[in-house]
Write a structure and sequence with these properties.
The chain is an alpha+beta fold and 566 residues long. Among the domains are: 135 residues, Butyryl-Coa Dehydrogenase, subunit A, domain 1 (Orthogonal Bundle), CATH 1.10.540.10; 119 residues, Butyryl-CoA Dehydrogenase, subunit A, domain 2; 123 residues. The protein is built from 19 helices and 9 strands. Strands 3, 4, 5, 6, 7, 8 and 9 form a 7-stranded mixed beta sheet that branches. A two-stranded antiparallel ribbon has the order 1-2. A hairpin with a 2-residue loop joins strand 1 and strand 2. Helix 1 runs antiparallel to helix 3 and helix 17 runs antiparallel to helix 19. 52% of the residues are buried. The mean pLDDT is 94.
């Protein structure tokens, strides 16, 4: 059916009118020159054209033809390699990387928009460059000068792609079980031996080289995650020789057929350490945190792609007459006029709109944390990113799957067959709830690592931020009351958690969901403040958010409080 079409005008409204991006960037000396709205709008429009004209048309073949594996080599679907070459040569991977590294030095939020659109248009293809920015940041901040000289500009520009090699057959979320060995050599290098699984883009034909970042254990390292170090192994070394890294096979998967998910074997491969021995996770988390925001953006993009298909179908499919008043512009039997279908579409639209505001603000806060001249403002930005990243990753990947399923329902039986393309989105979206830390891990990260250690102080400070500039209107009052409820819920968990080891783990998922709903309410309120009151495009999703999404908070609140009271 229809390929994905980015809407630069709507995104511009959310960036400029809702989030006031130019004014925010003007406070950052390093990015002040990029605060020109005309420049940013031009970047978004050109990005939209590239996504729609080059990447989106490859989505169907990526799913149906998929990647091919033969004798250790992976061939990507037709057109993928040419599209990637055009992508990096046009400078798209380099949007937000530093100019001294060959990048363009533009705001991170523009990169966030680009990857959201790419994921919506062709999730499988986008998996390849999806780890680039995290790998670039990891090498930039932790690698030696010698490694930077060899690899940094290639990663910054996207000429070479990268992987993140963590998972092993026996070690998924528990990285402390990693067994891959790194043996020091007399020349300062290391020899890596072990097997990694679920490695996205471990082998392919998209770029001339692949930079593998690998967690491994030194011979004298202690057990557990603190004994891990990070190493860099390229597919090809600077002298042109090939490393002893072998792709054993690619997985047959439910979805993402356009992305090779590889089993990688390291046969005493020569490697260089990145960062300090025993601090591999510290270096790797730079990459993982960037990846988690990108996965949240995948969720938003995939849900938008599903909504686009469902909305287009509903605007053409004619069935029984819909109830309600007649319309001068729409036939009475369009399914778009049926309340059940309209509710589904408006509800998913509400998730997309609010999700964009939250994800874009988080991307903006990454730049604030890096560049703002005021230390307190930088600290607040770090707090926002630390607390919201696990929430966004979990909430929006879950909604991508469940919401895409709701959009499939709009098609009836036609949604279940391959012709219309909506079933592919449901299949592709499912993995986003699993990789880069399962959604259960995200909930534990939020509550047990971010909220409880300081008695909820950081979360309370974030809620102070959400309360800033609230007025006296009905929606302001409703948001203020909801924030008070989350404050009280947080305090209840803080007081109850020490009584029982399992309590915090048991309520973590519901607590994260309650937090997500407050963030959604805040984002929806920001949109309503900026949007024209009589514009159905924004008012209908806003109503759906209030009526069909936010009431879930009461349920989650009650579930957490009931467990705390036991």
């Amino acid at each position: 059916m229809n390929a994905y079409q980015p809407n630069a005008a709507e995104t511009t409204f959310l960036l400029f009118d809702v989030l006031r991006l130019p004014q925010q960037l003007a406070e950052l000396p390093a990015l002040a020159e990029t605060a020109d709205p005309a420049l940013m709008q031009q970047v978004l429009e050109e990005a939209g054209k590239f996504v729609a004209e080059v990447v989106a048309p490859l989505n169907r073949d990526g799913d149906e033809i998929g990647c091919r594996f033969e004798a250790g080599r992976v061939t990507t679907p037709p057109g993928f390699a040419d599209a990637y070459r055009a992508f990096w040569q046009a400078g798209w991977p380099a949007l937000a990387t530093a100019t001294e590294d060959g990048g363009q030095g533009l705001p991170t939020v523009l990169e966030a928009v680009l990857y959201e659109w790419l994921s919506a248009a062709n999730h499988g293809w986008t998996m390849a460059p999806g780890l680039l920015h995290g790998a670039y940041e990891c090498v930039k901040h932790h690698a030696s000068d010698e490694l930077k000289a060899l690899y940094l500009d290639k990663l910054a520009t996207g000429e070479w792609l990268a992987t993140m090699c963590l998972t092993e057959p026996h070690a998924g979320s528990d990285l402390g079980l990693v067994r891959t060995k790194a043996v020091p050599q007399a020349d300062g290098s290391y020899r890596l031996s072990g097997t990694k699984i679920f490695i996205s883009g471990g082998e392919h034909d998209l770029s001339d080289n692949i930079v593998h970042l690998v967690l491994a254990r030194l011979p004298d390292a202690p057990a557990g995650p603190k004994g891990l170090s990070l190493f860099l192994v390229p597919k090809f070394y600077p002298d042109g020789s090939r490393s002893a890294v072998v792709c054993e096979r690619i997985e047959e998967k439910m979805g993402l057929h356009g992305s090779p998910t590889c089993v990688m074997r390291f046969d005493e491969a020569s490697a260089q350490i990145v960062g300090e021995p025993g601090r591999g996770l510290n270096a790797m988390f730079v990459m993982m945190n960037a990846a988690r925001l990108h996965v949240a953006l995948q969720g938003v993009g995939l849900l938008d792609a599903a909504w686009q298909k469902a909305d287009a179908y509903a605007a053409e499919r004619r069935q029984m007459r819909a109830p309600g008043p007649r319309s001068d512009t729409e036939p009475a039997d369009l399914i778009a006029r049926h309340p059940a279908m309209r509710q589904k579409l408006d509800t998913q639209r509400a998730w997309v709109d609010a999700g964009r505001v939250l994800a874009y603000r988080t991307a903006l806060e990454l730049d604030v944390a890096k560049h703002h001249p005021d230390a307190a403002r930088r600290a607040a930005a770090q707090r926002w990113c630390a607390l919201t990243t696990p929430v966004l990753k979990s909430a929006f990947t879950e909604q991508a799957f469940s919401g895409a399923s709701e959009c499939l329902q709009v098609f009836g039986g036609h949604g279940y067959v391959r012709e219309w393309g909506i079933e592919q989105i449901v299949r592709d979206a499912r993995v986003s709830m699993i990789y880069e830390g399962t959604n259960e891990i995200q909930a534990i990260d939020l509550l047990l690592r971010k909220v409880l250690p300081d008695g909820g102080a950081s979360l309370q400070a974030l809620l102070d931020d959400l309360s800033h500039n609230l007025g006296t209107g009905a929606q302001d009052t409703a948001l203020r009351q909801r924030i008070i409820q989350l404050r009280e819920l947080t305090q209840a968990v803080v007081l109850a958690a020490p009584r029982e080891d399992t309590l915090a783990h048991e309520v973590a998922g519901d607590y994260l969901r309650a937090t997500a709903l407050v963030l959604l309410q805040w984002a929806g309120h920001q949109i309503e403040r900026a949007a024209p009151a009589d514009d159905d495009r924004w008012s209908r999703p806003a109503q759906a958010l209030r009526q069909r999404v936010l009431p879930e908070f009461a349920m989650r609140e009650q579930m957490v409080l009931a467990r705390c009271a036991q």
